[in-house]
Amino acid sequence: MSEDGQQAGGGNAGQKKQKPDRFEKARLDKLDKIVEMGLDPFGQRFDDHLSLSEARAKVPAESGETGPTVRVAGRIMNRRKAGKLRFYVIKDQTETIQLLFSRGDLSEEQWTLMGHLDLGDLIGIDGVAWRTDSGEPSVKVEHLTVLCKSLTQPPEKYHGLEDEETKLRQRYKDLIYGDGVLENMLKRSSIIDSVRQTLRGHRFHEVETPVLHAIAGGAAARPFITHHNTLDMELYLRIALELHLKRLMVGGIERVFEIGRVFRNEGVDKTHNPEFTMIEIYQAYGDYRSMMDLTEQIVVDAAKAVSDSTVLPWGDDGDTIDLTPPWPRKTYGELFAEHAGCDMQDSQAVAAKAKSLGIETEGSHPDVIINEVFEATVEDHLQGPVFVTDYPASICPLTKRKQDDPNIAERFELFVKGMELANAYTELNDPRLQEDLFQTQLAGMSDEDSMAKMDHDFIRALKVGMPPAGGLGIGIDRLVMLLTNSHRISDVIFFPLLRHENPPA
């Protein structure tokens, strides 16, 4: 069994300490020999080293030429022997580079120290930039420093980490040895930086609002519940950022956004994780059309931050996502008629369609049935990017109605490859209507639940006066999925939620 398999079940407190396997024992023996040489096998600070991409830039263009001295650091990924020469490859977060150890260039102590190295060790190198006769960017080693002795055997060279649960549970190994994993995760940072830059360019202010809420509001979702001992009160991990950001608009911050973690005590699948990252954006004196323009620019700018083109690969069969603006805008009603095959205002036809799809209609609001039919028949066809606009008003309790049709809400959702990426409204700022809609939404709950869910302070804030505004929410994890050709949300979250590795007895 590989070391990965042997270690997959260990680590719970209270378990008997495992004896090292033969791989770890061999590494511990080498660690002891490093200590006997008077060296620290876990290293010290190593200042002024270049990233490997910077070091490669200093390598001469012509084969066989030497360049300036360089200092680099990285993890050993590969090695081979050639007589009195040793070739190693190290990797950092930017690149890889080849190292040349020559017996004639190193002291006896340094050559011996090199013999105590293993794949996975972290080392520092002082040497000379050089391009081999075959054209490989390299560093001729003049001095070796051990920075951390790895006690774990790497995955088998040609197969790497194959078990999907091991990849997610031991993400640190996946980042080191998984093909393209580290690069995609670093793209996540570039995408988030781009979103911030776009919004700052439009004079938006970034804020932080509470994660612990006294009321679970701003979305229809099941919250995680906790308890504050000192105040003796139940609190909820936030399910949305919306209501606090709108309070700030009332207070005078006319363009405001927050990128934050949101928590929903619901299912786990390819596009859902109970803890995820959202950005919510509010622009005073705008509407949902303003948010469409802003959404388009945010996504296109983010794509340009990680790619040279707005046409990105999707999947392994040559499919692409073309983000070149402008994006089409289609109404909910016309898409419903096209794909469900009936008018959404024809209640009998909608009920018949729902029945044919196995959707339960008894006791459900007509617009809820319409939306379930929409999800079942339309969303998979929305390869997009496409803005779906003008939703049934009753399923949008925080949204302004169209002036010429109060049954339709000024809302859009952006879909790409059948996945909802963004959701936006012309925000409702009438406190009386908002209170009525909250009451309707809470109808049927117990009195206790209604008191817990009704956000009276938010109504009080609206009575002070919130400017007409457009509001937008974008799922950051899903955006990263699309821009990195990743098909599971767990592939773009560093540490997705997993079941207990060893369930409690």
The name of the CATH topology of the largest domain is BirA Bifunctional Protein, domain 2
Any idea what the CATH architecture of the largest domain is? Answer: 2-Layer Sandwich
Q: Rough shape?
A: elongated
Q: What Rg, in angstroms, do the CA atoms define?
A: 29 Å
Distance between the termini: 26 Å
Binding site for Mg(2+) 1: 413, 420
Family: Belongs to the class-II aminoacyl-tRNA synthetase family.
Protein name: Lysine--tRNA ligase
Domain Aminoacyl-transfer RNA synthetases class-II family profile: 188-496
Give a verbal description of the structure.
It is found in: Cytoplasm. Its main location: cytoplasm. It is an enzyme of class 6 (ligase). One of its GO terms (cellular component) is cytosol. The structure is a single chain. It is elongated, with a radius of gyration of 29 Å. The chain has about 500 residues and is of the alpha+beta class. Strands 6, 10, 11, 14, 15, 16, 17, 18 and 19 form a 9-stranded mixed β-sheet that branches. It has 16 helices and 19 strands. It folds into 2 domains: about 140 residues, Beta Barrel (OB fold (Dihydrolipoamide Acetyltransferase, E2P)); about 260 residues, Bira Bifunctional Protein, Domain 2 (BirA Bifunctional Protein, domain 2, 2-Layer Sandwich), CATH 3.30.930.10. The two termini are about 25 Å apart.
List keywords for this structure.
single chain; 505 residues; alpha+beta; OB fold (Dihydrolipoamide Acetyltransferase, E2P); BirA Bifunctional Protein, domain 2; 2 domains; nine-stranded mixed sheet; five-stranded mixed beta barrel; 16 helices; 32% helix; disordered N terminus; aa-tRNA-synth_II; NA-bd_OB_tRNA; aminoacyl-trna synthetase; metal-binding; nucleotide-binding
